Amino acid sequence: MLSPERHRHHRHPSPPQPPPPPHHPPQPSHVVATIENLPAEGGSGGGRSGISAPSSSVRQRIRKVLNRDLLLSVALGQVLSLLICGIGLTSKYLSEDFHANTPVFQSFLNYILLFLVYTTTLAVRQGEENLLAILKRRWWKYMILGIIDIEANYLVVKAYQYTTLTSVQLLDCFVIPVVILLSWFFLLVRYKAVHFIGIVVCILGMGCMAGADVLVGRQQGAGENKLIGDLLVLGGATLYGISNVCEEYIVRNLSRVEFLGMIGLFGSFFSGIQLAIMEHKELLKVPWDWQIGLLYVGFSACMFGLYSFMPVVIKKTSATAVNLSLLTADLYSLFCGLFLFHYKFSGLYLLSFFTILVGLILYSSTSTYVAQDPRVYKQFRNPSGPVVDLPATSQMEPSVTYTSLGQETEEEPHVRVA
Length: 418
Known about the structure:
Keywords: Membrane, Transmembrane, Transmembrane helix, Transport. Belongs to the SLC35F solute transporter family. It is a multi-pass membrane protein. By secondary structure, the chain is mainly α. 65% of the residues lie in helices and 2% in strands.
């Protein structure tokens, strides 16, 4: 028996209706889809998920900042600082315990090692990477760079005879603005606000260490002609900055072996001349024995390791990041001096150390980028990101390439225009 509803349809048929469209869940527009469209972890909006969402977001942000590459870059920078600490300790023993004041001879030993390892490597290569081929194209540039590197080391060491340790530590930070300016104008590196905040935090940590030195009375140095000493430090820091920026350019665009081989060639030549003119009498006064020989070997090993390893770290990070990392070298020397030389301890030293590390993490947490201009500078390739070919347009737009160690491009929401 038909129900009244079906009976009415049977007696009075209506025109056929089109079938209703299939129901699809609403999809967010690709153009406006952002992180806000994503559901919160642990379910929809209320209850305990709403409470855990902020803490989960904080954890994700911390994991994003403290990623593996960032921690690796910080660790590599601290390896360089430890090598500088070894250089400082061996130099202190040589000058104070054995009265061997031979900074030029010590640098000469390092350049000889670079020559024996890297210059000979270039000599046996074939083609355009051969030593003679490089000298034909760029010999005068590497000659200038070698002289800059030699005199940078000499000026800073010489400054200790005229000014105090605190002045050297503070004024040596002048290398950081030098590197930033040279990177901006010649490498076309562009910085963000967080980079400048990180740099300021690092310099504040360095000032905290200098203040601690004053409080505990650790102001070594005669300081009799402080102006000359301060000018020597500023000159050495400027030359260090020029050398570091040139090194970054060479290791990114040419090769690490070429840079070290040319520095070994011209550094050993010109430092040998400087040694013969300025330090031959001091070298004759050295009371040679096995202990002094061991200290020279230790110094040369640390110096050779620093020169060999620094291009690797600069290529992975940047010259600015490396110089920020090296600010902790004085603190490592101080911590060793607490046991070896019975330095006085202050809690400000620990505060200074962690302040510099925080500033370094802030600097490394966000990407810098390179404003590309093929007329001025060759393109930096970012190996971690895909290369996208953009269609040619009638209007030229500035192009940038991000060169951070971070993983920003992988974690950002994908926005696509249909």
